[in-house]
Amino acid sequence: MQPSKTTQQGPLDREVRFALVSDLDWTMVDHNDHTHDKLLRLNHVWNTDLSHDSLLVYSTGRSPHLYEELAAEVPLLVPDILVCSVGTEILFQGVPHKPWSDFLDRGWDREKTLEIAQAEPALTLQDASEQRPHKISFKELTAKLKQAGLEVNVIYSAGVDLDLLPAAASKGKALAFLLEEMDGGAGRPRDGVLVAGDSGNDIELFAVAGVHGCMVANAHPELRAWCDAHASSTLFQASEDGPGGIFQALEHFEFVEHAEPRPAGVAVRRAVVGMTTAAAELFCGIAPQPLTDTVARLGEFLSDGFFYKHEGVECGKQEYLDYLGGPGYGGMAQVAAGRGEWREWLGAIVVREGVANTWKVEAVERVQPFKAGDHTGDVRRTYRVCMELQEAEPGRWLVSRQVYETLKPGEAYNSVPAA
């Protein structure tokens, strides 16, 4: 039985070169990397070289509720598509994709499946937030389900979690559904799809026809055994954990675009990311010494007529640089006060061509301290940033205007600037 087609507008309606489909916990997010430096490096590459013509898809066993908790605590980019609850829920910018849920409803008897599973004394239900319309989750039965005439997909992950899903549901089947929808619209990513994972519930992602796979170095035995049994030139076994392994796979399969000359939109993105990175090094107290070098590097991204505005404060280029390089902003006093634990990232970025050889950029910028064992989402600072860039010379773009808007704590931290 094939899923019905849909005319819903969304991220599948544009032609893309590449798609990254990644699990979250211990794959995109290495919970042992408390500074998240590897994830921030991957974010940088995505924002500069990939996001303009690629799709970012998170495929996680987490429910939407637990995804929101994770997104508030680690420096995740905003995905184009979110696949939750082991493939049973697909969301486009937070909105459930109804054709997928309608497809899973066919032949799924949740009540009867739960009744049979609860009769097993060795099984313990996971938290209520993890029980979803098309997913029943246990800690730790296939024959009894079949005897009852139920077609159920039983997925065992990380040695402890057992999920009961409709037979038509899994991370892999959700990806296959999305690829079929692409076939009926703008087409599949022309350079390919890379999937990345670490546990048993990622196996079906790797089994989707035509994809490239990245098994991160910290993978669980069930995924490692599958990859060993299905070794091929399109399956990469990384030597680094989590996002470090994904970065290795992007380079191994040459998905990171190095073509020259770069499209103007890519050059604009690189200028924006370069400027925000230099400013963030000053704010976060991680700028290399001497600080004047970072201030000078930042100045190279700003036009002579640069204008800055934030919360009623307005200034020009030199005043802005003097402030950023001053002891009250990025000096060693801030580092001594713990500022060196803060990190900055652009969670989302949209670039549009303007008039008279200008480009307009809208981004969501976030800064947050990361410390081992601490939950710091409540002190995250989130800004909506609007910029205008002008071409100083071929391929070199300068920021002429930058306006910040501070968002309330927790407000729209998964929002994407309007397209």
What is the element layout, followed by pairings?
Elements: E1 18-22, H1 37-50, E2 54-59, H2 64-71, E3 81-84, E4 89-92, E5 95-96, H3 98-105, H4 110-118, E6 124-125, E7 136-139, H5 142-147, E8 152-157, E9 161-166, H6 171-183, E10 192-197, H7 203-206, E11 212-215, H8 221-229, E12 235-237, H9 242-252, H10 264-283, H11 291-299, E13 302-310, E14 313-316, H12 317-324, H13 332-336, E15 342-353, E16 358-369, E17 381-393, E18 396-407
Parallel strand pairs: 1-2, 1-10, 2-3, 10-11, 11-12, 13-18
Antiparallel strand pairs: 3-4, 4-5, 6-7, 7-9, 8-9, 13-14, 15-16, 16-17, 17-18
Keywords: Hydrolase, Magnesium
EC number: 3.1.3.24
Family: Belongs to the sucrose phosphatase family.
CATH topology of the largest domain: Rossmann fold
How do the strands of the widest beta sheet line up side by side? 5-4-3-2-1-10-11-12
CATH class bucket of the largest domain: Alpha Beta
Q: What is the radius of gyration computed over CA atoms, rounded to a whole number of angstroms?
A: 23 Å
Taking pLDDT < 50 over at least 5 consecutive residues as the criterion, the unreliable ranges are 1-8
Instruction: Please count the beta strands (DSSP E, at least 2 residues each).
Output: 18
Number of domains: 3
CATH homology superfamily name of the largest domain = HAD superfamily/HAD-like
- Quick one: biggest sheet? 8 strands, mixed
How many angstroms does the end-to-end distance come to?
Answer: 35 Å
Structural shape: elongated
Strand content: 25-35%
EC number: 3.1.3.24
Protein name: Sucrose-phosphatase
Pathway: Glycan biosynthesis; sucrose biosynthesis; sucrose from D-fructose 6-phosphate and UDP-alpha-D-glucose: step 2/2
Pfam families: S6PP
